[in-house]
Amino acid sequence: MKKISALVLATSLSATTAFAGGPVIVAVEGEPMAVEVGPTSSINAGIVVPLLLLIVLGAAVYASQK
Q: Is the pTM above the cut of 0.85?
């Protein structure tokens, strides 16, 4: 009976430590890279809005003269 108890105890202790926790995943990071961001479009957004306002103002002036 003692041999069976010792076998059960040894099996239960080894089984709990064998499955404790989960896999440890270590992410390997490469060297940091510098990315140069170029212009996103060929039209400057600072000029587009005033041009559109000028066109709308010109259309309003033209429509009021008729």
A: no
